[in-house]
Amino acid sequence: MWEELILPPATPNSLDVESCRLEHTPDENSRERMETPPNSNPDSWCSLSKDLWRSILERLSAAELSRAACVCSMWNSIASESQLQINAFKAPWKLKEVVGRPSSGSFWHDNSLGRFAISHKLERSDTMAGLAVKYQVHVTDIRRLNNMMSDHGIYSRERLLIPVIQPEILVNGTCYIELDIYAKREVAVLYLEGAPDGKSSYLTNSVPEKTKRRLLDSMKRSLQADDGTVEYYLSISNGNLRNAFAQFSHDLGWEQGHRTS
């Protein structure tokens, strides 16, 4: 008696699965084609013209432009162009013009409000509190920007730099890149009335006799010392008020300590 063989029903999946798998397995060349996007070849990017890259990079902000300069030599050459950097520096604040060149190209990388300042020519009646009210800033902010230890510094300077807190004041304005020897910083200065005369002592390394006299008078009031003492500490500090005050205070503390001992 023959035993009946029971076979599973035929289905489409019961075909030669192994042969089908082999048929659809990609070879090395096709796998490489699938893994490599069609436009990812670096050579295809380099084939773009320099003018086209410039039109792309000029849309970046100042901070983004500085980062783009690190991508490749072509981007670096474009992102380092002075006019491109100036335009990126001006764009957020809608400045009309920036006059002058900074001592370092890294100046253009930061175009925050802290990079700008208003030039205020000092008058005899000016006080720190009065200037703070006029420009709606804090006295401490004016001191910090101008490298001042106390309000007495106002008597030894021709002008003060005022922080910019309202960006609207920069719209259609002209800023001048200046290195202030008293504030010891390089900033983009906005003149609300006219333009710099180019002869101001705060833009040069030499201190005229009139300014030196004002420095002496200011230190005499602050230190309660005679002319000779003040001139000595100014000379050993190369005219730097902060260093002169610090050295005088150090020597005074040393002298008082020896008197009590």
UniProtKB/TrEMBL annotation:
The source's domain of life comes to Eukaryota
- In this chain, composition skew of type Basic and acidic residues spans 24-35
By its UniProt entry, which PROSITE patterns does this protein fall under? LYSM
Q: Which InterPro entries is this protein grouped with? A: F-box-like_dom_sf, F-box_dom, LysM, LYSM1-4, LysM_dom_sf
Q: Where is the LysM domain?
A: 118-162
Q: Where is this region: Disordered?
A: 24-44
The record ties this protein, via Pfam families, to: F-box, LysM
| PANTHER family (alphabetical) | LD22649P, LYSM AND PUTATIVE PEPTIDOGLYCAN-BINDING DOMAIN-CONTAINING PROTEIN
Task: Kindly provide the name given to this protein in its UniProt entry.
Answer: LysM domain-containing protein
* Source organism per UniProt: Picea sitchensis
